[in-house]
Amino acid sequence: MPIRYPAPLVRGETVAVTSPSSGVTADERARLDVAVGVIEQRGYRVVIGDCMDGATHASAPAAQRASELNTFLTDPAIRAVIPPWGGMTAIDLLPLLDWQAITAAAPTWFIGFSDISTLLTPITLRTGIATLHGNNLMDTPYLVPDGLLGWLDIVTRDTGSSFTQISPGRFRAEGWDDYVTDPDVSSMTLDAAGSWTRLDGSTGQIDVTGRLIGGCIDTLANAVGTPFCDTATFARDHAPEGLIVYIEAADEDALTICSRLHGMRLAGFFDQASAVLVGRTAAPDAPSMTQHAAVVDALGSLGVPIIGDVECGHVQPYLPVVNGSLGRVRFADGAGSLTQTLR
What Gene Ontology molecular function terms does this protein carry (predicted)? Predict the structure, then answer.
């Protein structure tokens, strides 16, 4: 069965903002307003939901967050949904989503990363609807470096179109911008040099094709092995080409990431993988294991190419990935590219 892509977002259409996980504090609201303004300047309407409170770890009770997300994903007047950022407990929405209604509705772009991948990936796996693992709303004001695209560049593309992204060759070494003291910040501090790294020990050229799927290890691992993260059925129904699986660590130490990846592999999450992309991370190493070594320890036995330090994680800049799109990864002599085709 073909992947279903949302229609391209066009000027005058509506983007909805909701927080399926963590909300926004009063001190952070100025940054939210700046980010909304960037979308409006592109010619889109923005509606902000009720689930936005940043006082605790979740913006509202699970039932309310699920109801609002269900409404936004199935309302034909809303053409894209984006949260301010992630959090930790989006997983509590999975049994509360109206899967039948989401599947029956015209597809809507759903964008985000970090804990939001705990929702994006199951939606693509269960419904065959493409979702976008990319910049969250609060990242939207940043200027996009050469070689990469922003989420607003991707959701306007026609089904059947292709686009290629490459590493800009630099990244942020540490830290985050302070949105409270500088809500208007729009330039990334990319103060370190680095590109993609091959982790699996081989040195030959890579040219691999497969359907893209993946997300944040720290949160998505908790859904793997449940009916919400069935990559085998997805591959059978939608991905005869196999899968290119991308993963990224947010902030858990290397030993914890290693353990989580072993669990994901044993649950079959990587069984159809023809390659694995690993996001660059600032998460800590352990005394006896680096983050790179954690990936190799858990996934080296897959016998597929593993490329590390891809810009698909929490370290700026961001390389958006469309879940369900047909990906082609090419890598040689330390340089790589990812081409995504929306078909």
Answer: carboxypeptidase activity
Q: Could you tell me if 194 and 257 lie in one domain?
A: yes
- At residue 4, the 3 state secondary structure works out as strand
Produce one character per residue of 89-107: b if its CB has 16 or more CB atoms within 10 Å, e if not: bbbbbbeebbbeebeebeb
Question: Does 325 lie in the same domain as 293?
Answer: yes
Q: Give the domain-ending residue among 124, 159, 194.
A: 159
- What does the pLDDT look like over 130-152, one tens digit per residue? 999 999 999 999 999 999 999 99
12: left (phi over 0), alpha (psi -120 to 50) or beta: left
Q: What are the pLDDT digits (tens) for 165-202?
A: 999 999 999 999 999 999 999 999 999 999 999 999 99
Residue % of the chain over a pLDDT of 90: 99
**The token pair that represents 34 in the structure block:** 């700046």
Average pLDDT score over residue span 318-323: 98
Give the pLDDT band (50/70/90) at residue 224. Answer: very high
User: What are residue 212's phi and psi, to 5 degrees?
Assistant: -85, 135
Q: Which of 159, 179, 206 is the last residue of a domain?
A: 159
β pairing state of 14-17 and 78-82: parallel
Q: What is the pTM of this model?
A: 0.97
Dihedral pair phi/psi, residue 248, rounded to 5°: -155, 145
pLDDT the model gives residue 330 = 98
Label the pairing between strands 206-216 and 243-248: parallel
Q: How far apart are CA 36 and CA 24, in angstroms?
A: 13
The domain total for the chain is 2
Judge residue 71's burial from the number of C-beta atoms within 10 Å of its C-beta, 0-12 exposed, 13-18 middle, 19 or more buried.
Answer: middle
